């Protein structure tokens, strides 16, 4: 169990907030420079987030949020849980934490120079290991839950690509079955799988992809968008074939969709962000549930995945849906009752007309879309407890804390 931070340590960490606001990104860039010089540690990271600067930025915001809330760590509970789930998906182990601590503390000392007094460094050492111990403890619990669940596993497990389906001009689905023909643990709608991949010319890669199938004990389905310049997504689209074997970790993630029979739910997505919602809809379509409103944004009809499935659910009265096409809705569309097609992007003004009391809002999609949508819901008075979201990239709750 972690030893609680003493008043002096918390006071020193809190006093470092101005320095982190000014130099946080420099510190995290330096930290990753040190950390990624170790090949074994480098292989644990999504290197695309290093190249585009997302990971250092997200970590800088997380460290700043930690310092700002050092006297109210309960405010960081959701962020800590998401980090723990991501770590489990990537098979982060206790022995990895000393490397991170050494790199972080070394970076603080390097960037702050003489301002990084022994007292400050001691306080940050204690603060880092306090948080590390919390994460290690929670991750141990999650690993054990995976091991104890029927069909569950820890570490990497071989899965075979059973089927590939073209869902749209940019999205393909990959159906995976365990190579050992044994059962798999049923995921919770909204969770993701993590992959350890070896891509020619790019080396070891790690990625997370949301599961788009309804919970089952024999397979998982991923639906992956081919991103411009995306090393791994392009490899999936251009190279992976039926029969190929992939290394996969157990389902993880705390973004779990749980529509209750007596609650109203609005599912808001853009692009490939609809995948966890497709999983949830597959789980609830034949079960009692409250009203479900599906709101989705796509570039054009040809890029919209699962359009026939959405239309089927609308026709059966399972959901009502609003679909936004940024390039313009088709002129000859004949929407079903309960299905509305819109030209342009979803706006905060339109969203404001949809806000209702006692409703839960689930948000998934590109980072800026999510930030704008979540802040728009909060501006309309929706309680934080009624807003649920999942970031795909390296962003975290810290961005919302910084933007609020």
From TrEMBL:
Alphabetized SUPFAM superfamilies for the sequence: Ferredoxin reductase-like, C-terminal NADP-linked domain, Globin-like, Riboflavin synthase domain-like
EC annotation from Swiss-Prot or TrEMBL: 1.14.12.17
Domain FAD-binding FR-type span(s) in chain numbering: 154-258
Highest taxon, organism lineage: Bacteria
InterPro entries documented for this protein: Cbr1-like_FAD-bd_dom, FAD-bd_FR_type, FNR_nucleotide-bd, Globin, Globin-like_sf, Globin/Proto, OxRdtase_FAD/NAD-bd, Riboflavin_synthase-like_b-brl
Cross-referenced CDD domains: FHb-globin (cd08922), flavohem_like_fad_nad_binding (cd06184)
Keywords: Detoxification, Dioxygenase, FAD, Flavoprotein, Heme, Iron, Metal-binding, NAD, NADP, Oxidoreductase, Oxygen transport, Transport
Domain Globin: from-to ranges: 4-140
Molecular function, one GO term: heme binding
Catalytic activity: 2 nitric oxide + NADH + 2 O2 = 2 nitrate + NAD(+) + H(+); 2 nitric oxide + NADPH + 2 O2 = 2 nitrate + NADP(+) + H(+)
Cofactor: heme b; FAD
One GO BP annotation of this record: cellular response to nitrosative stress
Entries under PANTHER family matching the protein: FLAVOHEMOPROTEIN (PTHR43396)
Role description: Is involved in NO detoxification in an aerobic process, termed nitric oxide dioxygenase (NOD) reaction that utilizes O(2) and NAD(P)H to convert NO to nitrate, which protects the bacterium from various noxious nitrogen compounds. Therefore, plays a central role in the inducible response to nitrosative stress.
Membership in a protein family: Belongs to the globin family. Two-domain flavohemoproteins subfamily. In the C-terminal section; belongs to the flavoprotein pyridine nucleotide cytochrome reductase family.
Record protein name field: Flavohemoprotein
Organism lineage string: Bacteria, Pseudomonadati, Pseudomonadota, Alphaproteobacteria, Acetobacterales
